[in-house]
Amino acid sequence: MRFAKLQGSGNDFVVIDNRDGKVEEFLRSLNLDIKEFVKKVCAFHTGVGADGLILIENPENPENHFKWQFFNSDGSVAEMCGNGSRCAVRFAFDEGIVGKEVRFETLAGVIRAYVLDGGKRIKVQLTPPKDYREVSLSLDTQSIEGYFINTGVPHFVAVVNDLEKIDVIKLGRAIRFHPEFQPKGTNVNFIEREGDDAIRIRTYERGVEGETLACGTGATASAIVAYKKGIVSKKPVRVLTKGGEVLAIDFDNDFREVFLEGGVVRVFDGFLRRELFEC
Ligand SMILES: N[C@@H](CCC[C@H](N)C(=O)O)C(=O)O
Questions:
Q1: Residue 141: pLDDT band by 50, 70, 90 thresholds?
Q2: For a Cys staple, 172 with which of 4, 72, 181, 188, CB 3.0–4.6 Å?
Q3: What is the CA(250)–ligand 1 centre distance, in A?
């Protein structure tokens, strides 16, 4: 089965054109469920290795260009993914499925996107953020203050002073599974001010269950929190990711129109062999 691997600021995804339903056929022939399929493909060392997997499918509404199914590397379904959106749009553009202005269907709603620089940069308009609230959490050995906001998927954002010293896995996991956010859990972002228009970020991602090099909806959630709380005063907010890329987040004053922009690389194209799923 043909696939492409793309990455946006180091958040990497396997993307498959499933408009003809070939994935279901492949799964049936192997007697495999989609969760196992995703886990095997996304596994580092034994599979392709990726933070998630995206299926491009026919839209429900013909006014849109495609629908996607998005899976985290552990096989769980997520409502939305910012960097994955940018990769999906780049793939769809390369394959001639879309032009430079795109509308596609996700579980979080219809996402609009714009292809820039021949596909090397993609800008997506995320769904309006919701459920913003200040949160104070008691953990086993400490308490932590932060902000919850849903930018398509749930995010907790904590402002810290020494980002490099944060134990993102340990603290991120404790917050991700905290009763406050059950049953869905949350992604967890730690941010530090870098200037009037910039923050640095590290993210623990739900469904990857570890730190990723970047998270688009997390960068967006964090930029909005940073602006609301006066940590930055200018926009677009530049978000310096662990992957090294700077994501640009822009929004209007009432946070109804929110944009995420950054580079996308189509790393390689490949062919998944049955052997991977038979072992
Ligand atoms: N990496 C993504 C977010 C993917 C979904 C997330 N792990 C979840 O389950 O909520 C992004 O770029 O936004």
A1: confident
A2: 188
A3: 19
